[in-house]
Design goal:
Blueprint (H helix, E strand, L loop, with lengths): L2 E5 L5 H8 L2 H7 L9 H13 L4 E7 L2 E11 L2 E8 L8 H12 L5 E6 L3 H9 L3 E10 L4 E10 L1
Antiparallel strand pairs: 1-2, 2-3, 3-4, 5-7, 6-7
């Protein structure tokens, strides 16, 4: 499988919105916008993310197909990574490969990542890329409408 990363373009947003409102994907991610079907909130989020030069938001392509997105950003002085894959392509190693490519570009360490405890596939992506579990916390997750356990991972 050959994938590559490239900067997000405006014409990618419609596809990202479709994935980010998919009910199964929202449930697995858990920590999403309050209403994943709200396009105005989606657009406002991406305007804010793209306006911050510290954020790196890249899309994942397999061949000529857009298959996901990966990003780095800073929250509360901690550098974090995140990824979102087309739900129709889950389980094919795309997230693991894309995160590996992102980690070649993002040299800041430590890096943190978070995964809902009920999402072992996301945990596996992080572990394959050298992250280690460093803690857990219970937080409100809009995607599932309740508090859930979120695992915190670190890469040094």
């Amino acid at each position: 499988m050959t994938i590559r990363l490239r900067p997000l373009r405006d014409d990618d947003l419609d596809q990202l919105f479709r994935w980010e409102r998919d009910p199964d994907a929202v449930a697995m991610a858990a920590f999403t916008r309050e209403d994943p079907t709200d396009r105005a909130a989606f657009d406002a989020h991406y305007r804010r993310v793209r306006a911050d030069p510290e954020n790196h938001l890249l899309v994942i392509e397999q061949g000529a197909q857009l298959v996901g997105a990966v990003s780095t950003f800073t929250i509360e002085q901690e550098r974090e990574v995140s990824y979102w894959i087309d739900p129709a392509r889950w389980g094919r190693g795309i997230a693991s490969a894309a995160l590996a490519l992102l980690l070649e570009r993002e040299r800041q360490r430590p890096l943190f990542a978070r995964a809902a405890a009920h999402n072992p596939a996301s945990a596996a992506v992080l572990l394959r890329n050298g992250f280690v579990l460093v803690g857990s916390e219970t937080s409100w997750a809009a995607g599932v409408g309740r508090e859930i356990v979120e695992h915190v991972y670190r890469l040094d």
